[in-house]
Design goal:
Length: 411
């Protein structure tokens, strides 16, 4: 990343984003391993794992309102501070945690903060970072965040295998680091004055983001097609989410170290090493072609998970297959993560990307309410392997549909 070639505001923004990403690595580590902690340390039931999975999409549904508030606000930094206090520092309650239900409340606060942080950070990238290197800069922030996350995850896995209750101190440290990340983001300068100071009636504030979201999807057909493809992919990806910890803990009986190595380290290795490269590729390729490649690669993850379940009597083989599956997962999710965060800026053009990203996040919430339930129903009726088979079908479909959209535009 050539900082010297950047303008002063762009260079300062890039440095602050990198610093925030380093502290956010603690949050990334916890997000990757929270379900393993719930299953092994807190003995969460299947329905509680499902509830944990639903917290994320329910929180995302608020994004279209939070994104609109951020867009209109003259004091944007206060939202970063509020998210840091209520969505990050509250993890410190882990020291006094009595059971899974309290754990779920803390996760709800954690992910609710994302409903404002994600569109806000997206707006910063659009307004402060030049479009020719935007995704590349984002790639560097992800690599740094993943480096911290991998280190924390490795140490946490080893510590938890020796002292299981130390997850409480891990939550405290994660909350403090997450707050510092939000504090750093609040220091990013906004290059333009606030959009409006008029007071909006409550009814209009409630309905306007909904109507505006529908109008946006009707007006921007390419963005609507992008959301359709992501919805198909999301069904396949999210339906596996509540099933994976059950599979790793109950079927393969992996230790904390093995679980954290696969789910928390190998799954993020791609983001660590490939984010700048794939970010540069994203800047050059059309988003439809980029996500088609990413979705197609991710399809091999559930297929390898199914294969690993055939070797439960040979733990070494099944564990190696899980490790390979998560390496592929990391490669695919590096591309998907970049597209998920940066493509909205492409479709927004000269419009404010915060609202586009808010719609994108909220759409994630809608499919996220359906997919986990579908996964649990499939597991209970047809067996745990059926979930991964159906998920692979969704991912293949998303890849094909996205590539057809690309060919349609190209021709």
């Amino acid at each position: 990343m050539k900082l010297r070639s950047m303008k002063p505001l762009e260079r300062q923004t890039a440095l602050l984003l990198l610093l925030a990403a380093a502290f956010n690595g603690f949050i990334q580590s916890f997000s990757q391993t929270q379900d393993i902690i719930a299953r092994k340390a807190l003995h969460a039931a299947d329905w509680q794992i499902l509830a944990m999975t639903l917290i994320w999409p329910l929180s995302n549904l608020m994004s279209i309102w939070m994104g609109r508030i951020f867009e209109k606000s003259c004091h944007k930094s206060r939202y970063f501070i509020a998210a840091g206090v209520f969505g990050r520092l509250t993890l410190g309650w882990g020291l006094f945690l009595a059971g899974v239900n309290e754990y779920l409340i803390l996760l709800m606060l954690l992910y609710s903060a994302n409903s404002i942080l994600i569109p806000a950070q997206n707006s910063i990238f659009q307004k402060n970072i030049d479009g020719s290197r935007r995704a590349k800069v984002y790639g560097y922030t992800i690599s740094l965040s993943m480096l911290v996350s991998i280190c924390i995850t490795f140490v946490a896995g080893r510590v938890l295998d020796s002292h299981e209750q130390s997850f409480r101190w891990i939550m405290l440290g994660t909350g403090i680091a997450g707050f510092i990340s939000c504090l750093v983001l609040s220091r990013v300068k906004q290059p333009e004055p606030c959009a409006s100071t008029e007071k909006i009636p409550f009814r209009k504030a409630l309905t306007e983001p909904l109507t505006r979201s529908v109008e946006l999807l009707k007006k921007n057909k390419q963005f609507a097609a992008f959301e359709r493809s992501f919805s198909i992919y999301g069904m396949g990806f999210i339906m596996m989410t509540p099933i994976i910890p059950i599979f790793l803990v109950d079927i393969l009986k992996l230790s904390y170290t093995a679980n954290f190595l696969s789910k928390g380290i190998l799954s993020q290795a791609g983001m660590l090493f490939l984010s700048p490269l794939l970010g540069k590729l994203h800047d050059r390729l059309h988003p439809f072609r980029f996500i088609s490649l990413s979705f197609g690669t991710l399809m091999f993850f559930p297929l390898l998970i199914i294969l690993s379940s055939q070797f439960t009597q040979v733990p070494l083989v099944s564990t190696i297959l899980v490790f390979v599956a998560y390496l592929i997962f990391g490669l695919a999710m590096t591309g998907i993560n970049i597209a998920w965060n940066m493509s909205s800026i492409y479709f927004a053009g000269k419009e404010d990307a915060a609202m586009y990203q808010s719609v994108h996040v909220s759409m994630t919430g809608i499919r996220g309410l359906i997919a986990p339930v579908l996964g649990l129903v499939l597991m209970r009726t047809l067996g745990i392997r059926s979930v991964f088979i159906v998920a692979a079908g969704f991912l293949l479909t998303a890849s094909i549909v996205s590539y057809r959209d690309y060919l349609r535009i190209k021709n």
